[in-house]
Amino acid sequence: xxxxxxxxxxxxxxxxxxxxxxxxxxxxxxxxxxxxxxxxxxxxxxxxxxxxxxxxxxxxxxxxxxxxxxxxxxxxxxxxxxxxxxxxxxxxxxxxxxxxxxxxxxxxxxxxxxxxxxxxxxxxxxxxxxxxxxxxxxxxxxxxxxxxxxxxxxxxxxxxxxxxxxxxxxxxxxxxxxxxxxxxxxxxxxxxxxxxxxxxxxxxxxxxxxxxxxxxxxxxxxxxxxxxxxxxxxxxxxxxxxxxxxxxxxxxxxxxxxxxxxxxxxxxxxxxxxxxxxxxxxxxxxxxxxxxxxxxxxxxxxxxxxxxxxxxxxxxxxxxxxxxxxxxxxxxxxxxxxxxxxxxxxxxxxxxxxxxxxxxxxxxxxxxxxxxxxxxxxxxxxxxxxxxxxxxxxxxxxxxxxxxxxxxxxxxxxxxxxxxxxxxxxxxxxxxxxxxxxxxxxxxxxxxxxxxxxxxxxxxxxxxxxxxxxxxxxxxxxxxxxxxxxxxxxxxxxxxxxxxxxxxxxxxxxxxxxxxxxxxxxxxxxxxxxxxxxxxxxxxxxxxxxxxxxxxxxxxxxxxxxxxxxxxxxxxxxxxxxxxxxxxxxxxxxxxxxxxxxxxxxxxxxxxxxxxxxxxxxxxxxxxxxxxxxxxxxxxxxxxxxxxxxxxxxxxxxxxxxxxxxxxxxxxxxxxxxxxxxxxxxxxxxxxxxxxxxxxxxxxxxxxxxxxxxxxxxxxxxxxxxxxxxxxxxxxxxxxxxxxxxxxxxxxxxxxxxxxxxxxxxxxxxxxxxxxxxxxxxxxxxxxxxxxxxxxxxxxxxxxxxxxxxxxxxxxx
Length: 813
Known about the structure:
This protein has 10 helices and 50 strands. The protein is mainly beta. Mean pLDDT is 87; it is low at 1-37 and 170-174.
C-alpha cells in the first residue's frame, strides 16, 4: 500500500502516443519496397519536417528581471529579448510583447504590453499593496506565440512579500508529498535488453529534488538494482528485465516510512534506443529490437527543428547502430526520433551539446569593498569569437543579497538552450552552465532522460493539411481585435465598416470592415498608455449593431503551478528591513517613481499636412458654428438639404466640388451627423483643418476631410452617440525611467535623506562592443551588505552570455 502522500507517475509506452493511423496513412508504403525507396520515403519526413519549421516560425522571449524577490511598493524592472527559436538570433518580427504576473492560482494580477524594437524592449511594474505574500510567475509571449501551446511562453518564478500585511502563521506540521517518476531510455523497457532507467524524485511542496535511496526487486523478491540520485533528485540505474517479470522499487524517503512503487511495464517485444558518447567526437546510437527479424529503421535528429542528422539502417538480428558526428550538431538540445519500417516513431532520446563559442562577459571593479554613498565604477567587457556582428545587446542589474534574495538568477543562455525546449520545471538551470555544471555530463544526461521535448508533436509535422493560425504577428504595432454583431439576433455582422478612435489632440483614427465572422482588426501604432477608445459604425447607415473589443492577453495557461510560500521567523528581520526600505523610498524618492521617457511618436496628423488650417483665436470669434463655416472656411461649402446640414468640400486638385459629406472628425472621433457639428459651441474649438482633396483611409475613400480640435482634446462636452462602444483600453506601456541618487559632492553625501535602496542600479540598454571596455557607474546606498551584479547579453548572431559579480558595502570609518 503506497503512502497517500506519494504521487505515482509512470512513463507510458512510446508507441501508443504517436498517432499510428495518421502516420501510416501519410507515410505508409509496402514493407517489401527496395532500400532506395525506403530511404527516399524517410528523406521525405525530413523534408516535411523542414517545411513545417519554415511555416511555423518559432519565437522565443527571454526576460531579464532585475531580481528574484520583491516587496509590495517596489518596482519590478525587466528587459525583453525576442529571438527566433532555431538560431536564437534577435528577431525583429513582433513589435509587441505581452507581459503578465500570475498568482498561485494562474490568475493575472498585473498585465502590460511592451514595445519591441529590433528584437528587444524593456518595461516595469509597480507592485501594488493589494498583492498578498506568495510565489508568483512572470510570463511573456507575443501575439504570434498565442497560436501555440502556452508551454512555449517564457515563465519565471518570483517571490513577492507584502510587508503591509501580517504574514501567515507557518503550519505546525506540513504533510510530506513526493513524486517519483521512472523513465526508461528511449521510452520502452523491453525484456532481454539491457535498459538504462532514469528517475526523478521531487518534493511536491517545494518543487525541489530530494535525496532518496532505493532498491529494485522482481516479483520473487530478488534485488536486481539499487539507485540514488546524482543531482537535484535525478539519477539512473542499469538492469536487464526478464520476460514476464514485474518490478517494484522500494524507496527510502526522508521523514516517512519506505514506500513501494512499481516500475513501468516490461514489454516482450519492442524497440529500445540507447545513446553512448564514444569520447572520440561521436555519438553511438544503438537500436535493439526484441526479435530476430530484419527490417529497416530510420533515425532523425534535429536541433530546435533544424535537421542535423537523418539516416536509415537495417536491423540485423535485432540490432542496428548509428554514428553521429557531434560537430554536425548545434549547441543545445538535439532530439533524436527512431522510426520503424511502418514509418511510426517508436523511440526518442534527447542529447545536449554544450556551446563552445559563447558570449564571454567580464565584470571588473577597482576594489571589492565600498563605503555607503560611494561611487562604483564597473568595467564591462564582451568577447564573442567568430562573430561577424561584433556588438552585444545587454542589460545589467545590481541588488543586495539577503535571506529573501537568492543568488540564483535565470540566465539567458540556460533559458534559450535548455529550459525553453523542455517540459516541466528544471531546478537551478544555471547550474548546467556553470564551471562545475559543464563538467558534470552525468547530471546533464540524466536531465535529458527525465524531461520530454516540448516544442511540437509529430502529428503536426506529418499531417500535410495546411496549418491555420488564428493570431497573426504584430509586425507594425499593436493589433486591437473586436467583433460586430446584430443587436436583435446576436449573429455576426459581416461587411460592416467600423471606426476605432481615441479622443485627443493627437488624432488616432482607424477603420476596419468586419469579416464573415463579424471580426474586425485595427493596427494601432504608437498607442501608449491608458486611453478611452470608441468603436462605432456610421449610424446614419448602420443602426442595429453592437460592438465588442477583445482582451488581447492569452487565456491559456501552462500546467505548472507555483508552490506555496510561508515566511519563517528567521526571515522576520529582513522582512522588517524591506518594509522600512520601501517606506523610505516612497517618502524621499517617491516623486521620481512615475517619470516616463517621452515616446518617440509621429506627431503628424493621420491626414498629413492639411490643405487649410484655421486657428480660431486668430479670427473673429462667432458664437454659432454655422457662421464660422460660412465666413472664413473657404474649402468647405455649407448646404441645407431637407432641413439638414451638409458639407461639400472643394476638390482643389481637380477644381471641382465634392457632392457627398466628407469625413468629419472631432478630436479624432468621426461624426456622421453634421447637424450635431453645427450645434456644437465653436468657442470650445481651438483649431479647424480641411483636406481639400480625396482622403484615403485603408480601403476607404472619403470626399475630403474636416477636423475640429478642442483646447483639451476631450470633446469639449460633445455628446457622442449612445450606440457607440466606449471603454478604457490599455495601450503600450510607457517606459518608466530608473532613478537613483548621485553623491558627487560632499553636500550630497551629507544629505539627511535616508537612502535605503536595495536595488542600486538597473541598466536595460547596454551596448557592448567585442573587445572594447565599457564603463558603467552608480552609487551605493546607506545599506551595508553584499551586492550582486548580474549582466546578460545577446549578440546579433545569437550568442548569449551572462556574468555575475559580487562586491561588499560597509559603513564608513
